[in-house]
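Aim 2 progress update. The chain analyzed this quarter is reproduced below.
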Amino acid sequence: MILPLCILTLAQIIASGSASTPATDTSININLSQPGKAISPDLFGIFFEDLNYAADGGLYAELVQNRSFEYSPGDHKDWNSLTGWELIQREGAKGSVSVDDKEPLNANNPHYAVLNIETGGGGVGLQNAGFDGIVLKEGEKYDFSVFARQLDGPGTPLTLRLESKEGELLGEAILPSTKPTWAKASASIQVKKSADDAHLVLLGKGKGRVALDMVSLFPQKTFHNRPNGLRADLAQVVADIHPKFMRFPGGCLAHGDGLDNIYRWKNTIGPVEQRKAQRNIWRYHQTAGLGYFEYFQFCEDIGAKPLPVLAAGVCCQNSGHFIPGAPKGQQGLPMDQMQDYVQEVLDLIEYANGPATSTWGAKRAAAGHPKPFNLQYLGVGNEDQITPVFKERFQMIFDAVKAKHPEITVVGTVGPSPDGKDFEEGWKIANELKVPMVDEHYYKSPQWFLDNFKRYDSYDRAHSKVYVGEYAAHDDKRRTTLRSAIAEAAYMTQLERNGDVVHMASYAPLLAKAGHTQWNPDMIYFTNTKVAPTINYYVQQLFACNSGDTWLPATVDEHSGLATSAVRDSKTGDLILKLVNPGVTPQSVHFNFTGHNSFALTGTKWVLSGDSMAVNELATPTPLIPEKSPANLGSGLQVPACSLTVIRVAGKH
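Predicted structure tokens:
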């Protein structure tokens, strides 16, 4: 029995006198002498999708927007190749800028800017303000690079200036004279003064025409100091979840808006200037600077198993709504292309796991990672409409992977909802083909999560395992509130209870840049200078950091309304208890342990509680965070209303 969701604010509780009501006495009984039930050690992870500017302008540390001049109205109706750039003419200089695609640096990104310098003066050039301004930190070094080619006229040296919004010089570098063929020029600049809204200015003074492409500025201090790396503070907050796996790069992004927009992993590896940029299904642009190599490397850096998701040979069933004249709905790759696509899937496994002497393993090694990435999971499909077109192509991919790589766990899809026709048809395919795992998604109200608390109790353990790949409790006005987070926490205890059939789960979406969101709520909000984990983030972190691999039976007084979970971590021997109170009445909990000689019954607890309607985003001045303190289970425990309590007791060794 679950009591009604905590729908009252703290002020309402006080006004009604509930705050002074004595806590209800509750008993929890745990038999520690029982062997328990083995559950998935990979249960709690994360899902990254390039949504809400999560990659370019977000996790990917590139500071220049539209660095290769590939923006177009296809990305966003108001954009063009020079979006993000401004022509600069200083101290009597005269010139113009245009865009060309003749003899490009690389055919995958054919457009480049052409500076026509008529009168040198103080310089003709381009200015870029990055993504809502460029953040620079005093004393730190930044790596600049550009590809340039002199089209006519003598070669000219280029000057790179980092300037404040008011024009103050923050750092400068003089680059070699341009040449008749494409050449890369690089410089390292130490910044003299911090700024949150700096600009990059690239100037030339010699008369003539200069082609420019791949204008880039990176902080040297990326996450783990990786070149072409990730924004350090944002990546660290993600790493602090301690996820067991990471699903990437989508989501809807993976199967794309039309067949031409399917995410093709081979376009995202190798030198960044050779990667193929394309429009993002979420109506902006993706450079693919954050590509498959960087995803695998990030997983390794944070200790998360990689779970790449590939399209199942079909595009999204919602395709074509934003592109005039484009085909509408789900389309399948022509069958004469499917063998090549199946090989593309197999090549990804070789890229991740093959020896450095293999064709694709060699490309991984050339990128700086000779050792395999140890891929175990591979997603095929995402929220697809389950049609004959889908089934035929999914089966081709599944059969090929199963035949050549039986060690890989293929994760199928059962549509976008937790029920309905696609869900039922998806499960039929999974049972027919014996797919090892399927991906279920649901975005529902907090009450739905409480009403479906026993969802997986009756799942057939002989059939496919479950990955809950996308879920979130959507509260009023699509905000991240404590009551939505507590509903998720209650639901997560039943995911642990059913950890023998539910092998993985990840909240979605992960990241959102303030002012650039296509979807709310999200787990982590950020600006160029701030990172704001939500209440829901702390729930995910508490579960991921305190997961186990053995579930222990625990009984709780039926009247309490508490959602509980007891697990053991075999690596540490620790006992971990999770108590979720979704109701408005506090609980006074007493523990009855049997066979607890291996535990001291004193440890550490974390409590997440407060006003049930508290919103925890960038605008919140004092965010709710878990409070850590000692715990003594022998003397009982006070569990606040609308709260999550996690207790960790060290096992005796």
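The chain has a mean pLDDT of 93. The domain at 46-61+222-545 is CATH 3.20.20.80 (TIM Barrel). These observations will guide the mutagenesis experiments scheduled for the next reporting period.
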